[in-house]
Amino acid sequence: MPFYDLDDEALRSYRPTVQEPDDFDDFWGRTLAEARTVAPEISVKPVDAGLDLVETFDVTFAGFGGHPIKAWLVLPRGGHDLPGVVTYVGYGGGRGLVHEHLGWAAAGFANLVMDTRGQGSTWGNGGDTPDPVGNGPASPGYMTRGVLDPEGYYYRRVITDAVRAVDLLRALPQVDPTRVAVSGISQGGGLALAVAGLVPGLLAAAIDVPFLCHFRRAVAIAGTDPYGEITRYLSVHRGDVEQVFTTLSYIDGVNFARRATAPAMFSVALMDPVCPPSTVFAAHNLYGSHDAAAAVGPVTIDVYPFNQHEGGQGHQLTKQLPWLRAIAGLTRPTTAGPATTPTLTTVGASS
């Protein structure tokens, strides 16, 4: 995949005007207020995953419309007053298996991994959350489900679920509600960005190669799905262009980014055909710009010039762990003692 987007200098200064509805804040304020009136119906059941150093739980909580949303909860064993991380997964994936989510808990965080409603059958090890809401004609995939009406659009439900996941983690007795962060890759990064713009007082946001940003440009230059789903829909529904992009403006990550204030660590890949680099930089460069008087935490972006949509993968996590531990005030356990080198014994060696 060649470089196909703006050059580095242009990306660093790219601050586009992105369509934003006049009632954006009212729309989301009303949506979340309605969601929070529903009885939580929280279920947290221990799961024996064969792991001794962490505690694992199968969680169900009430998302948009009170619909049951599944999640995994992984805690450092015996932990209390823990900082937390809510993790959102990529497009088409589900929460998978609980033992796949050990990194944050091993670093001292309570980690809630949210399943994505209606997804979980494209890659990975599956999901467990249906989407009980129907919709009108749509392209295969999730991007155009209910896209002619912001009220019934699929991602209105998913973003509400994502906010409610933060509400849940903050309410757990083992967790310090003032120290909860969000994280995600691709669709998960887009959801983390949306939550950062909707939920005050977050500890931080780790946002990797985020999807759902700057839709007009993304649809125009992305060479593949999921943005291609929108292209195919509009190639058939020729008269619906403006209504589709109006609906998408209610869930555009750039509009959420402008309202976010928590410290943030972005990542972007310059050969990414799925989430064009300029759409990621648009969100990064406009982060915290909605209110000039607001105090905005430090915002950084790690650039992977020769990677596609995989971005930094494990290399990015090695940067996120010390960054978030420092923000959360976590220190290394003093009882662990210094690392020791094991003594090797050669078996069967002749004397």
From TrEMBL:
| Pfam families on file | AXE1
Q: Name one GO biological process term.
A: polysaccharide metabolic process
Q: Which domain of life is it from?
A: Bacteria
Q: Which SUPFAM superfamilies match?
A: alpha/beta-Hydrolases
Q: Which residues form the active site?
A: S186, D272, H309
For substrate, which residues are the binding ones?
Y91
Q: Which InterPro entries match?
A: AB_hydrolase_fold, AXE1_dom, CE7
Ranges where the record places region Disordered: 121-141, 332-351
Q: Where is the Acetyl xylan esterase domain?
A: 1-325
Q: Which GO terms describe its molecular function?
A: carboxylic ester hydrolase activity
Protein name, entry field: Cephalosporin-C deacetylase
| Origin organism lineage | Bacteria, Bacillati, Actinomycetota, Actinomycetes, Micrococcales
